[in-house]
Design brief:
This protein is of the alpha/beta class and 104 residues long. It has one domain: 3-Layer(aba) Sandwich (Glutaredoxin). It has four helices and five strands; from the N terminus they run βαβαβαββα. The chain has a five-stranded mixed beta sheet, with helices on one face. A hairpin with a 2-residue loop joins β4 and β5. The chain is globular and about 30 Å long. The two termini are 20 Å apart. The mean pLDDT is 97.
């Protein structure tokens, strides 16, 4: 299951030593609801290798501002605590899996 990431725990997660994938989303966002189940599947498939989580942009405003999140869904891919790649908008599972594989 995808981890719930908040403004309060993101630093700890980014310093986990593993690649991190964060889905920035909101309850009211239609495309986010399309991407959500894909993110959950990937979280199960990459468990133990990659930290995959979701951040609700309505409940957490500091982190999306820091990373310039203007559209959702936006998925950021982190390696060594730095943004290595991003996906803006809904996409297919294979595209997200390829970006995750590039982090490993």
């Amino acid at each position: 299951m995808a981890l719930e990431i908040t403004d309060g725990n993101i630093k700890e997660i980014l310093n986990s030593g593993k690649p991190v994938v964060i889905d920035f989303w909101a309850e009211w966002c239609g495309p986010c609801r399309m991407v959500g189940p894909i993110v959950e599947e990937l979280a199960k498939e990459y468990e133990g290798k990659v930290v995959i989580g979701k951040m609700d942009v309505d409940e957490n405003t500091e982190t999306p501002t820091i990373y310039g999140i203007r559209n959702i869904p936006t998925i950021l891919f982190f390696k060594d605590g730095q943004v290595a790649d991003k996906q803006i908008g809904a996409t297919q599972k294979a595209a997200l899996a390829a970006k995750i594989e590039a982090l490993l």
